[in-house]
Structures are given as structure tokens and as C-alpha cells.
Amino acid sequence: MISIKGVDKHFGELHVLKNINLEVDRGQVVVVLGPSGSGKSTLCRTINRLETVDSGTIEIDGEQLPAEGRKLAQLRSDVGMVFQSFNLFAHKTILENVTLAPVKVRKTDKAKAREKAMALLERVGVANQAEKYPAQLSGGQQQRVAIARSLAMDPKVILFDEPTSALDPEMVNEVLAVMTSLASEGMTMVVVTHEMGFARRAADRVVFMAEGAIVEDAPPAEFFDNPRSERAKDFLGKILNH
User: In whole angstroms, what separates CA 194 from the centre of its chain?
Assistant: First the structure.
């Protein structure tokens, strides 16, 4: 579903992605872990071309990422993205936030889009907030709305860029519960997170990055119980003994 080959990316002098090679199969959940500044979020953002790359190729479902224009917009509509900061439209209701893209981009009938949006809001547990505005919701509720908004486009893949890091601790679990249920239903997901419990429970693979490179790529049990690299051992020692 996602094929990344030989991808390099610089920000000025900083080499943020170094020869990244990664394949994600349909229905797989890949959790990307690593210390701050390791390139995790940049990698996530290159997959739907929010960041350009200097070299290498990225394909989604066999199609190479177009540079710009209508083709790129079309491809982006197949790749959902859930950000750290929710990114909901403040002046639109929750329901309007979820129906906007299907109506505008997919040309879905308004009544159908509304019906589907309500079903999705029900699924993520915020249907009773449909007529409210984002500012009237908690962070956890807003992030669940952001997930519903992604699902409204019937994406082939959803990218999560640290979706719980801006939340109060008690709200983290409500968002992770929605993500875990998506994983169990076979949604292809790439998740950049610090949530070790989610990685262990829901991931098919853990990809560990450090200094712009992929250092390990292993099933969760193997990564957490028997990391191969010193860098991963050091990272897990700091995180798990925290």
C-alpha cells in the first residue's frame, strides 16, 4: 500500500531523512518510534507530500506521488491525516467539519455526507456534539472528530502524526481506543507516537528511527523484549523506566 524507496530529505544543512526504505502492506499498522528530532514526523508528512523529498520515490497503492496539481489533490484524498493539533475549522460545526471534504472533493450528495458523518461521529463517540463548534469540545473529543473527518473520505491509508501528544493524560486513552478499533478492522495506518502501550498492543510492526535513519523494523514483541541496536536499547531504557 505504501512503498518508500531511497528517500532523502534535507532542511538546509540538516539531513533529516537518510536513505529511507519502507514497505507497508494493505491492512498493516506500522508504529514509528524514536527520540525527538529523529525524522519521524517528517517521514509521516512526506507520505502525502506535505513535505517534498530531495531524492527517492514514494508510492501509494502502486501510484507514485505526483508533484502537484489535481493528481496530488486526488491522492491526498485517499490518504487521511490526523495531526497533533486537530486542525479543525473553528468557524464550522463538528458536523460541517466532517462533511466538508466529501461534499467538496468527492462531490458526495449533502444528505448522504451528513448521514455518513453522523454514523462516523457515533462511532468515535461524539455524535451528541455534532452541532457544537470545536472550541466547545475537549481536546480528546476534537481529536476523535479529526479521526472521523479522515474516515469520511474512505481513505486507503491514515497517517497519524503524534495524535495524542497535545492531549491531557486522561484524554489519551479515548483517542487510542478509536485508533485500536480502526487497527482491528484492517485500516492501513502509519502512526508516529510515544504511546508504547498502543505500539505493543495494536502495531503489526514497530519502526524505530534515530538521526534520520530507520535503525530497526520488527514485530512489537521482538522490538520491546529484545531490541537489536544499542540505540533502541538506550531509548527503551529511558522511556520504559520513566
Answer: 13
| Residue-wise pLDDT tens digits, 92-122 | 999 999 999 999 988 999 999 999 999 999 9
Superfamily grouping for domain 2-240: P-loop containing nucleotide triphosphate hydrolases (3.40.50.300)
Q: What is the pLDDT of residues 204-216, one digit of tens each?
A: 999 999 999 999 9
- What's the mean per-residue pLDDT of the chain? 93
- CB contact at 8 A, 94 and 61: no
Long-range contacts of the stretch 116-123 (C-beta < 8 A, 24+): 116/152, 117/148, 117/152, 120/148, 120/151, 120/152, 121/94, 121/95, 121/145, 121/148, 123/148, 123/151, 123/178
Grid cell of 222 as nine digits? 521482538
| 204 CB burial (10 A radius; 0-12, 13-18, 19+) | middle
What would the pLDDT profile of 117-133 be if each residue is shown by its tens digit?
A: 999 999 999 999 999 99
pLDDT at 242: 53
Q: Residue 151 is inside which H or E element, if any?
A: helix 139-151
Cβ atoms within 10 Å of 133's Cβ, excluding its own? 16
Residues contacting residue 100 through CB under 8 Å, at least 6 positions apart: 89, 92
Q: How far is CA 213 from the centre of its chain?
A: 19
Cα–Cα distance measured from residue 101 to residue 57, given in angstroms and rounded to the nearest whole number: 27
- Could you tell me how far CA 35 lies from the centroid of its own chain? 17
Write the CB contacts of 189 (distance below 8 Å, at least 6 apart in sequence).
28, 29, 30, 157, 158, 159, 160, 179, 182, 183
Query: Is the model's pTM score more than 0.70?
Result: yes
Q: Are 220 and 202 in contact (CB under 8 A)?
A: no
